[in-house]
Amino acid sequence: MGEYLSQVNALPFYLIVGGVLLFIIVMCVVFLVKSYRAGIAIGMDKKVLKRAITSSATFTVLPSISILLGVIALSGTLGVPFSWLRLSVIGALQYELNVAEISATSIGLTGLKVSEMTVQAFSTIALVMTVGILGGVFCCIFGLKKYLGKVQKTTTKKKSGKPGFGAYATIAMFIGLCSAYIGS
């Protein structure tokens, strides 16, 4: 158990995660500066821009409290660097905890117990979590523009008066979400 934790909390993992997060922070600062300059260039008031920055920062910090709790919950089993990276960049707390637990039980563990974890189990869980979340990324990259175009059309068809695609899509997503949580 001690050897496993020392491997998943090793310095190279921290350096890799730190590098990734530093890159993301630099990108955020670059986009913040460019956006601020673009706002000034089109004549926006500096007070409005500063208020937008302040409210955005507030709405960024508050959700990070739950993310920190998720990092703490996952780090006992999956290590701090992996949990930190997953929940900082692309992961969602509900997804990460559920998929990690499902993956662990699927490979024969009784749950996310550090006493049962091995490096092979960690690798499998990490792979399943990563591949699983990439579906949403690829759907957004390749299909979001077309999908949003359909959803943003009027919710009722003008000729027949029946609900359009957007109404059905919203209902289907709601039912799917409820089913997924009730099923698990």
Short description:
The protein is mainly alpha-helical and 184 residues long. It has seven helices and no strands.
Average of per-residue pLDDT values:
86
The biggest sheet, with number of strands, parallel, antiparallel or mixed sense and barrel status, is: none
Portion of residues in beta strands equals: under 5%
Number of domains: 2
Order of helices and strands: HHHHHHH
Query: Runs with pLDDT <50, length 5+?
Result: none
Helix fraction, binned, reads: over 70%
Helical segment tally? 7
The global form is flat
Can you characterise this structure?
With 184 residues, this protein is an all-alpha fold. It folds into two domains: 147 residues, no CATH class; 32 residues. It contains seven helices and no strands. Helix 3 runs antiparallel to helix 4. The mean pLDDT is 86.
How are the elements arranged and paired?
Elements: H1 2-8, H2 11-41, H3 46-78, H4 80-89, H5 93-106, H6 119-151, H7 165-183
Task: Using brief descriptors, characterize the structure shown.
2 domains; mainly alpha; single chain; 184 residues
